Amino acid sequence: MQVLAKSKILGLILSSFTAFVVVACTTKAPSSYYPSKDFRTDKSASFGAKGTMKPYTINGKTYYPTVVEVGETAEGIASWYGPGFHGKKTSNGETYNQYSFTAAHKTLPMNTVLSVTNLNNGLKTQVRINDRGPFVDNRIIDLSKAAAEQIDMLQNGTAPVRLEVIGFGSVDDAGSIVHHNESFGSSGDIVNNGMTYEGGTFMVQIGAFRYKEGADKTAQKYSSYQGYKAVVRTSSKDGLNRVFLTGFRSMEEARDFASSGAFVGAFVVRD
Q1: What is the pTM of this model?
Q2: How deeply is 236 buried, as exposed, middle or buried, from its count of CB atoms within 10 A (0-12, 13-18, 19+)?
Q3: Is 185:264 a contact under the CB 8 Å cutoff?
Q4: How far apart are CA 41 and CA 195, in angstroms?
Q5: What is the bridge-based pairing of β-strands 102-104 and 124-131?
Q6: 84-104: per-residue pLDDT in tens?
Q7: What is the C-alpha separation between 228 and 244, in angstroms, rounded?
Q8: What is the pLDDT of residue 195?
Q9: Cα(147)–Cα(240) distance, rounded to whole angstroms?
Q10: Which residue, of 31, 113, 114, 119, is most buried by count of CB atoms within 10 Å of its CB?
Q11: Phi and psi for 214 in degrees, rounded to 5?
């Protein structure tokens, strides 16, 4: 009887251990355990920096905003912020709108445009950096409510994400950028749609049109603008006809041109 009892006890222990192993192997690790690989920073590059590129200190830790390039990536935990900040000023002076596709990052230059992929479900969104944060351990980005909703992370509050730099914005006359707020003009043009092309050289998008006639007219008007050449690209995905200026010798040159204000909402993409 003692042998039988011991056998039953041993069986229960083994069953419990097996169940624990199965649960441990099939349950996803909490977001807080996800390894973080944020964008690079460079202390030396901050020397003489001005405005939102100046180093700043929060809770005893100093952050060094650093210029990045298209194609750079990072991974970590995303969170989101909404109602409590809606209508308040962001770090670059804009008014936070939880329904716009924006985000906060600790070191990326303001107006950097990112592609954000939720690694739990593969859903993607695009955001523009206009604020600083999140100042919480193991968090690399704070998304607006609209962006968080698009990648289905509102309920959980956080999610592991991959970030990729896909472009850089410019400020319009009102001091804001609306890459993701498409508005149709009388000629069928759409400004600031935030779409990008991949490749090796850089160009600046100056307009997007539903009808090719509008794109062709714009390209003809700026066929030789300040030494740059205008081209029209028609997307097979959404049918839009986009006008780009080409001939930039570096990303920096393209970025400087986009931020010059010559074209409202212009931004840099890869050719």
Answers
A1: 0.57
A2: exposed
A3: no
A4: 27
A5: parallel
A6: 899 999 998 889 999 888 999
A7: 10
A8: 38
A9: 23
A10: 114
A11: -65, -40
